Amino acid sequence: MNLAEGVQIVSFGILAVMMIGTALGVVLLPKIVHSAFLLAGVFISISGLYILLNADFVAAAQILVYVGAVSVLILFAIMLVNKQQDYTELPGRKIRKIATAVVCFGLFALLGTMVLATPWSLSGASPAAVDNTVIALGEHFFSDYLLPFELASVLLLMAMVGAIILARRDLIPEAIATADSRTTSLTLPERPRELATLSGEEQD
Amino acid sequence: MQLEYFLLLAAALFCIGIYGLITSRNAVRVLMSIELMLNAVNLNLIGFSNYLDPENIRGQVFTVFVITVAAAEAAVGLAIVLAIYRNRDTIDMEEFNLLKW
Questions:
Q1: Rounded to an integer, what distance in angstroms lies between the CA atom of residue A87 and that of residue A100?
Q2: Which of A12, A59, A204, B50 has a C-alpha 20 to 30 A away from that of A168?
Q3: Chain B residue whose CA is closest to A71
Q4: Tell me: the pLDDT tens digits for A26-67?
Q5: pLDDT per residue over B43-99, tens digit each?
Q6: Which CA distances in Å does A113 have to A100, A102, A119?
Q7: What distance lies between CA A100 and its chain's CA centroid?
Q8: Quick check: B4 and A15 in contact, CB under 8 A?
C-alpha cells in the first residue's frame, strides 16, 4: 500500500464510520429487509479495510463470498419466510435490552483497555513485505496448510448436503400410498404445495 | 496507521454483533448478527497478519478458512430457520422452545 499517511487515515475514518453505522443499522432497524441491505454495506466497508491492510486477495474474496453469496442468501431467506407478525410483548423485555447493552458496552471497554494496554511485538519488516499475496497464499495452501484446505472442501460439501436435506419438504406417507398413475420414477416425493399460499395475500 | 485502531474497530463490531444476537427476535436477524461477529474476527486476523507477521501472511490464510466456515454456517443456519418456520409457522426466537424444558 503506497498511499500517503494522510490518505490512509482519512479513508480509514470514512470506512470505520460507514462500518459502525451500517452495523448499528443491521441490529437496530425495525424492517428486516433494510437490515439485509445494510449488511452488504458492512461487508463492503470491511473489504475496504482489508485493502488498507494490504490483503488484496482476501478483500476480493470478501466481496465475492459475502456480498455476492451470503447477502443474496439472506435476502432469499427473508423472502421465503416473509411473515409479518406482531411480536407479543413480553414482560421485562426492556430491562433485558438495557442489561444487554450495558454488558456489551462493558465488554467493549474491557477489550479496549486490553488492546491499548498490551505491548504488541510489532514486526520490524515493512507492512508490504509480500508484494504478491496471491502467490504467498497459494504456497501456504498447498504446503503447510494442505490438510485444513482439503478439510474445508469436505466441510463445504457436507454443508451443501445438510442444507438440502434440512430445507426440502417432508415426505408424506399417505400421499405416496395414494399417488396417482401420473407419477413417474422421476417425480419428487414432496408434499403438494398448499393452494392457500398461492392466492396472493397482500404482504409487504 | 496503527494496529490498535483496527483492533478497537473489530471490538466495536463484535460487541454490536453480540447485542444483536441476544436482543433480536427475528431468527434471520440473529444469523446476520453472527455474520457480523465472524467479520470482526476476520478483521482482527488481517490486522495481526499485517502488523505482526508481514513476511509470511498466515493471518490471511486463516481468514480464508473463516470465510469458508462462515459461508457453510450461513447456508445451514438458514436451512434450519426454513425448517423451523415450516413446522412452527413462526420465526420468533421467543417461541422456539423445542429443547427448552
A1: 19
A2: A204
A3: B32
A4: 999 988 999 999 999 999 999 999 999 989 999 999 999 999
A5: 999 999 999 888 888 999 999 999 999 999 999 999 988 888 888 888 888 777 777
A6: 20, 16, 12
A7: 22
A8: no
Closest Cβ–Cβ partner in B20, B49, B80 for A27: B20
pTM over 0.95: no
Q: Is A157 on the interface with B (CB under 8 A)?
A: no
A64 CA: distance to closest CA in chain B (Å): 11
Give the position of cell 444476537: B21
| ∠ CA B65-B70-B76, rounded to 5° | 130
> Which of A77, A85, A158 minimises the CB distance to B92?
A85
How far, in Å, CA of A129 to CA of A126, rounded? 6
Distance of CA A178 to the CA centre of its chain: 43
Chain A residues near residue B28 by CB distance under 8 angstroms: 32, 36, 74, 77-78, 81
Distance CA B46, CA B48 (A): 5
Say whether residue B88 is in contact with chain A using an 8 A CB cutoff. Answer: no
B 20-49 residues inside an 8 A Cβ radius of A: 20, 22-29, 31-33, 35-36, 39, 42-43, 46-47, 49
Per-residue pLDDT tens over the stretch A99-113: 999 999 999 999 999
Please name the residues in contact with A95: beta carbons below 8 A apart, sequence gap of 6 or more: none
Cβ B35–A70 below 8 Å, yes or no?
yes
CA angle (B19 as vertex; B18, B25 as ends), nearest 5: 105
Cell numbers that stand for A176 in this block: 405416496
Within 8 A by CB and 6+ apart from A154, the residues are none
Answer whether A166 touches B (CB < 8 Å).
yes
The answer to whether the beta carbons of residues B49 and B60 sit under 8 Å apart is yes
How many angstroms separate the CA of residue A146 from the nearest CA in chain B?
11
